[in-house]
Structures are given as structure tokens and as C-alpha cells.
Amino acid sequence: MNEPSLPSILFFLFAGLACAGAVGVLVFQRIVYMAGALLVSLAAAAGLFFIAGADFVGLVQLMVYVGGTVVLLAFGVMLTARRNQPAWQVPGVQWAVGLAVGGCLLVVLLWTVLAVPQWQTASAPEAAEGAPSAPGVLVRSGSRQTSPSQTGTIGPLGWAMLGVRTEQADQSDALPDVRQTGQCGYLLPFEIISVHLVLVLVGAAFLARAKRPPEPRPLEQGAKVG
Amino acid sequence: MSSWLLQLGFADWLAYGSAGLIKAGLVLVLVLFTPMLALWMERKIAGRIQDRLGPTRTGGRFGWLQSPADGIKLLMKEDLMPAAADPLLFRLAPYLSFCAVFCLFVVLPMADGWAPAGWDSALFFFLAVAGLEVFGVILAGYASGSKWSLFGAMREAAQVVSYEVPLGLCVVVPVVVAGSMDLEEIARMQEGWFTRWFIFHDPFTFLTFWIYAACAMAGLNRAPFDLPEAESELVAGFATEYSGFRWAVFFMAEYAAMFAWSGLGAILFFGGWNGPVPVASWLGLVSTNGPLAGFLGNLLSLLNFLLKALLGVTVMIWARWTLPRLRIDQVIAMCWKYCVPLATLMLVGVVFWQAISMEIFSPKPTGSCTVRCSSNPPRLSQGAWPEETPSAFPLPTRSGLASQRGLVR
Amino acid sequence: MFHPITLAHYFVVGAVLFTCGVLCMVLKRNALGVLMGVELVLNGANLNWIALSNPALRSDPAWAVGLDGQLMALFVIVLAAGEAAVALAIALNYYRLYLSVDVDQANQLKG
Questions:
Q1: How far is CA A128 from CA A11, A53, A150, B141, B373, in A?
Q2: Which domain holds residue B56?
Q3: Cα–Cα distances in Å, from A126 out to A147, B176, C96?
């Protein structure tokens, strides 16, 4: 049991990277470094998703978050960064208060996490048969011989978006009652989000459209800015 | 390979880890070798197009050793970094680009079963990682502390992020035909004569390929779309302040990415490792005839794949030295006003084509839907799918589609 | 403590990401920095969803949320992308008006 296994090693590697990136975003003062740290953190989180067997979600994370959102942020950084820009200092008191409150929050969260014994032991791999996949989706031999339970989650996810829960259909009898409600698919949320995204697209394009800018007027009391 | 190492009695983390490292090493060799070849081809072809000879002396008659010589020259160069640059990001940026391109190769199947990591969402992985390459360039432009670099990086960000949209739409078209995102599966479905290649599948896939080719070239910043490094406007764009080894890393990444994208085009539209004529199956070089025959057949497939990808690279080089450069607004307008609507049209068209051809050629659809992703065909009970009404359309599955394609032809 | 990766491991990472994100939102004065804090918070939450979806990470597998967790995570990611696009557009508009993205000075609506 104490022998290191590949998922464990990879987990601690990615977890360390994710936490380091998050702390980096917090402590760096230069906005570009913050973007870089955010990139590391989000990419490592994608790695954690893979280890937990959520390969499609990990890919979406890589594509949308890392390849889209962070690039967008970097774009925004380049558009708004000005040479000789003073780093906007946050007073030390605010840092102290913020860190104290944040520390309390972290302690409360960790205390809650460690209070539930069921969360601290993993179930035997046999119990996870038919699950989306066991942790260790990364470590499977050649793609040809994959057993059905080890193929990716992309198919079931796609069907769920269309309103069909294929992964539950063959085991619904064995499920406790709480899971019966999860039988329904996600067609309606999917459609709502699609419409929502179209609205966002139009809205963002409207906000950022190339119009004749009014003469920029620096803020009155913020004469030191810029 | 990992299972083989496990049989030798390695601990599992050691076996999987070393198998992964060996595969990564092989991919690295490919990623380093293809840019050299492509660079040499670029010099020769550019020379011929401009009525010159190109390199002739270095390493024999055809200048075979020109690329290694270039590499050595770049390594010997002084390592320059502008005073205004941000040292950490300036150093990091080229490697970030290179890593992203390296990851592109991880899912490319070179022959049947010869993908470093076969995966049922391989295509999605390819697209996701392709979006990361731009980050290195943005960082390079920002960290250089030069206005030319920053302009180049802004253009790169705008251009690449824009062209990801039509590229994504284009690659979905073969996916709709194949019913799978697994690149190996897609290539396997195009076995046989060249008429089974997806580009000849229907008019929509045929047109899609040309959109894909244009968008891939634009997404790779190749001329005529090389606005991020337009030397007549921006000195050298994001690469202005780079020299020596780091510059070489950037350009290795660019050429390797060219190879990867043409390889993807070959898999999606031109049958992947399957040759135009099924020679391998005539000669009996298939894996059912024993491992040795399978291995030889795979070698033949590998040759096929590499030739197709190199042909794609050649076309890109040809376009670069033939066509004049566009303006940045023309490039972006081409993306949003032409490529995206056309690609969307193709996607809608191919969906209707698939639906109609299924309607015509398939036997009467029954209510049972088999879904391969589950361990066994699920019975959809509890109102998830109304059982009494036969489903309006046969739910497309990989195997189902394959059999229907068999019926079509 | 180290070998079987459990739900608690994932929750700890998620808690760290969440806390860093909240602190980022509070302590940064650059609007884009605040935006990055939001992304971190959402990502910490996503990590929890993914961990909860996997039955093998806990000793009572029947209570795992299964694919629902992954779907939630997907929706969160997609909505976060939309949120980032709109927020960035707002930040750019603000910059265009005032040549600054300092949130402490965006107090024009203060009564």
C-alpha cells in the first residue's frame, strides 16, 4: 500500500503545481507574471481532472480555459498595460487583514474536509467497475485493448447533453434512490447555455466594438495613475 | 510497451513511467527531425521557385546538411537579450511554444496503432493543445520590451484565436462523417481504395478540405498570412529581439507545427496512413497474418503518412513563395466574413448529407439504440427515451456508421 | 496519507485554489487581477465537482455524483469563458474612458 503508484505521483505533481500557481497569482505584483501563474495553475488543474478520470472535462479545461480565457486575459493585459505604470500598491494593513481572513477561511475549509471519514479512504478498484473510470485513466496500455469501462467519458457526456444517460441505463436498478433523480439528461441546460453563450458573444462584441472613443479623461483624484 | 515492461517485473509506476519516457523520446526525435527536413525543403523549393538552385554544397550535391549547419550556426551565435526585456519570460517563451507543438505530436497516429497516445478524444486534444502555442508567442512579444514585438504578438493573438474558430468547424466535418473523435478510428475507416478517403466522401467534405487548408496556413502564421512577423512592416514581429538558440526553438516549433497540421489534414481527409491503393492488404501485410507482417505493413503505413504530411508541408512552402502577403485587416476579414460562414455551411450540409444518406440507405430504424461507449448496450428505461415510439433517427454510432458506409459503397 | 488518492486530497487542492482566488479578488487593484481571482475560485469549485464525480475516490462509491459532476464542471467552464469575455470587454471600455484599470478608482457611481 505504501508503494508509490503512478497516479499518486502524478497527483502530487499536479496538485503542487496547481497550488503553487494559485499562490503565484496571489503574490505576484506584475500582471503578466500573474497571467503566467494562472496558466500554470489551470493547466495543472486539467492534469488533476485527467487523473480523476474526467478526460473530456480536462480537455475542455485546456481548450477553453487555458487556450481561450487565459489568452484573452493576456490580450487584455497587453491592451491595458502602460509603460512606467506604477504597481498599484495595496496597503500593508489590507494585506494583513486579507491574509488573516483568508487563512481563517482556509482553516475552516480544511477542517470541514478532514471531518468526514468517508472522504479519506478510497474504495477498492473493483467497486468502481462501470464507473466513468477509475483514477488511473492515464495509465492504460495501448488504445486498442481498452476495456469498455476505460474508454473516455466523451461518449456518455455527449449523450447526457442530448438528454440520454447511457452510463446509468444499465445499472439504474442497483442505484440507491437518491440517484434515480439523476436519470434525466441535460438537454435543457445545454440549450439554455447555448443561447446564453450567443447572448454573451453579441454582448461582448457590442461592448468592445470599434467605436469612436471619447477623449480619454484621466480620473481627477487619480492624477498619479498613468 | 508498458504491458511488456510489466511482464518483465517492473513496478507499475516504473513501467508506465519509463514507457512514457521512451515514447516521449521517440516523439522528440520526430519533432526535431521534421523541422530540419522541412527547412531544407523550404530552401530548395524557394530556390527553384525563384529560379535559383538553393543550397548545393553543404554536405554533398543537394545541400543535405544545410539544416544541421544552420543549427550549429545558430547555436554558436551570441545570446542576446535586450535590456528592456523581462528576463524570465523572455527565456521561457520559446520553450512554451515548443512544448505545445511537441504535445501536438502525441496523439498523431503514424500507422495503425502507432500513436504515442491513442485516445478517443485525440482530435479534441490536438485542437486544445494547438491553442496553447499562441501563449508562447504572446509572452515573447510582451517580454521583449519592443514595440515591434508587441505589435507582432497582438496580431498573432488576434489571428490565431480567430482562426481557431473556422478550424474547429472544419475538423468537425470529418468527425460527423466518421462518428468518432479518435484519430486512429477515423483513419481506420478510410481503409481501402482512395475513393474511401473522406475528401471524396461527399461534396461538403471536399469543399471543407480547402477551407481547412487555408485556415491551417493562417493559423500557423505561414505566408501569405504571416502578419505576426511581417518583415516589411514589423521588422520581424514577435521574433524581432530573438536570436541564436531561442530563435531556432521558435522556428523549430513553427515547422514542426506545419508538419503536425498537415498530418492532421492527411488523417482527416486523405486516409491517414492508408495509401491510395491497398497494396499492403494485397501483399498480406496485415496484423492478422502475424506480428511480423503487421509490423512491415505498419512500416509501409508510416511511410505513407510521412509522405502525405510532407506533401502538405510542400504545398505550404509553395504557397509561401508564390503568393503576396495580405494585410492584417484582410486576414481577419477573411476569417470572420468568409471562412467561418463557409465552414458553418459545410457543417450543416454534411449533417444533412449524413442524415439523408442514412435515411435512404439504411434499413428501417428500430427502437433499439446501441451506444458503444457503455460497457454493454444499455436498455434505456425509465422514460429516458420513450420506448414505444421508434426513434426518429438511428442513433449514430461508430460501428453503425461503419456498416452503413459499407452499405453505401 | 499519500498512497490512495482520496476525495480529501482533491478537496484540499480545491480549498487552496478557492482561498487564493478569494484573496486575489480582495487584494488586487488591477481589474484583470480580480478577474484572475474569479477564475481561480471557479476552478477550485470545478475541482470539487470532478472529485465528487469519481466513485473510486471515496469509501462509499454509491454516493458519488457520477457524470452529473462532470457535466456541472463543463457548464461552469463554459460560463466562466463567457463571463471572462464580458468582463474583459467592460475592463477595456473602462480603460478606454479613463486610461486605467484600477478598480479602486472606479467609483464614479458612488452616491
A1: 19, 11, 11, 48, 17
A2: 24-360
A3: 14, 35, 59
Give the type of residue at B387: E
Strands (E), B279-326: none
Contact (CB<8Å) C78/A193: yes
Domain edges within chain C: 7-102
Coil, helix or strand at residue A29? coil
In our burial notation (b when 16+ CB lie closer than 10 A, e otherwise), range B244-264 reads: eebbbbbbbbbbbbbbbbbbb
B266-285: average pLDDT: 79
How far, in Å, CA of C26 to CA of C15, rounded?
A: 17
Note the pLDDT of residue A171. 55
CA distance C40 to A70: 11
Task: Give CA–CA dist B48/B233, Å, rounded.
Answer: 26
CB-CB contact of A27 with A95 (8 Å): no
Q: Do residues A72 and C88 lie in contact, with contact meaning Cβ atoms separated by under 8 Å?
A: yes
Query: Would you say residue B265 lies in a domain?
Result: yes
User: Per residue, what are the HEC states of A159-178?
Assistant: HHHCCCCHHHHCCHHHCCHH
Strand partners, B305: none
pLDDT digits (tens, 9 = 90+) for B50-109: 888 877 777 777 777 878 888 888 888 877 777 777 778 888 888 888 888 888 888 888
Mean pLDDT of chain C: 83
Band (pLDDT 50/70/90 cuts) for residue B323 is confident
CA angle B82, B85, B89 (to 5 degrees): 130
Got the DSSP string for B187-220? Answer: HHTT-SSGGGSGGGT-HHHHHHHHHHHHHHHHHT
Q: Does C84 touch chain A (CB under 8 A)?
A: yes
Per-residue pLDDT at B396? 43
Q: How confident is the model at residue C19 (pLDDT cuts 50, 70, 90)?
A: very high
- The CATH classification number of C7-102 equals 1.10.287.3510
A215 burial (CB, 10 Å; 0-12 / 13-18 / 19+) is exposed
> Which of the residues in chain A have pLDDT under 50?
1, 126-150, 178-179, 222-226
In this structure, are residues B196 and B269 in contact, taking their beta carbons and an 8 Å threshold? no
Provide the pLDDT for residue B392.
38
Please tell me the predicted confidence (pLDDT) of residue A143.
35
Q: Tell me if chain C has a CB within 8 Å of the CB of A102.
A: yes
Residue of A39, A67, A172 with shortest CB distance to B382: A172
Residue B174 domain-assigned? yes
On whether any CB of chain A is under 8 Å from the CB of C34, the answer is no
Q: How many CB pairs under 8 A join A and C?
A: 311
Average pLDDT for residues B322-334, to the nearest whole number? 83
Q: Is B376 exposed, middle or buried, given 0-12, 13-18 or 19+ CB atoms closer than 10 A?
A: exposed
Contact call for C and B: 3+ CB–CB distances under 8 Å: no
Backbone angles phi, psi at C74, to 5 degrees: -60, -45
Structurally, what CATH architecture does the domain formed by A1-115 represent?
Up-down Bundle (1.20)
Is residue B65 in some structural domain? Answer: yes
Contact B312, B265 (CB under 8 A): yes
Tell me the C-alpha distance between C24 and A41, whole Å.
14
Domain count, chain B: 1
Q: What was the ipTM of the complex prediction? A: 0.87
Report domain extents, chain A: 1-115, 150-210
Is the CB of A142 less than 8 angstroms away from the CB of B139?
no
